[in-house]
Amino acid sequence: MTDFMRIGELSERAGVTPRTVRYYESLGLIPRGEREGNGQHYYTKETLKHLRKIDQLKSLGLSLEEIRDVSIIYFNDTNDKNVIKIKAKHKILEILRQHLASTNQKMDALQEFRNDLLANIEYFEQLIMDHQK
Amino acid sequence: MTDFMRIGELSERAGVTPRTVRYYESLGLIPRGEREGNGQHYYTKETLKHLRKIDQLKSLGLSLEEIRDVSIIYFNDTNDKNVIKIKAKHKILEILRQHLASTNQKMDALQEFRNDLLANIEYFEQLIMDHQK
DNA sequence: CGTAAACATTACGTTAACGTAAACGTAAAC
DNA sequence: GTTTACGTTTACGTTAACGTAATGTTTACG
Questions:
Q1: CATH number of B1-62
Q2: Interface with chain B: mutation pick from A57, A60, A85, highest number of B CBs within 10 Å
Q3: Can you give the residue ranges of every domain in chain A?
């Protein structure tokens, strides 16, 4: 198991371009791949997971900035969390709660949208059936 | 009940700017407000509903183009639908099914995200409690 | 009836999230 | 051991979804 990969493999397996990987690095969304003396950067499967999670959250309509808000959930381990100061913890909690609220709203809206889709799919299926006989 | 309003009232009640209304008109996302001889446009409550629905779908991560895809659900009445040709009906059905599939995926992802949020909110609440005693 | 507030139209500006090209070093394959 | 593919850095380009400013017209108000 070759646990290290270069940016080409990483980006391909994540379904993004190298440019996107570098862009996310520049935003601090993912850790910078370590270099080995030469100029090249090497990444692990962890980074791959991060990229996939980012893609998922993006599909939910979160901006990269919002993803950075909640990235503490996915991209910091427990050790790091203990280092966070008490004031920051309150701030984080507040942000998480805000995201929870908007997530709840989105779930409701999505449910409604899904019902609308289902109803209309049925409706158009019927229209086509009627046309065929 | 003054059923007609101008762009100022419409946009304010929809929580958008006049610019946004005109932009959506230019994309064919909402019907152009009718004019009364003079230059001004008048809108109905229907258009207000459309704007609110668009806003909701946008919050779900749909682009304006995707919203136009599914706008037949909200913005065409049954009469109009009967005018659509059979070939177009198949096309619409295909698009609706694609949106259903991605909506299902989003629901799952959203559910997962919500759980992550909840777990972390609990976790940070605990951290703060520990700190207080 | 004059004047301020609202509307219309046109056009250039802005931001997020990358794309793309250039110019150069590195690695892989033959 | 040299082509050929891959990586790095820098910088300008692009698209969606509007913002904003300018200029002229229309409406509302005292």
A1: 1.10.1660.10
A2: A60
A3: 1-62, 84-133
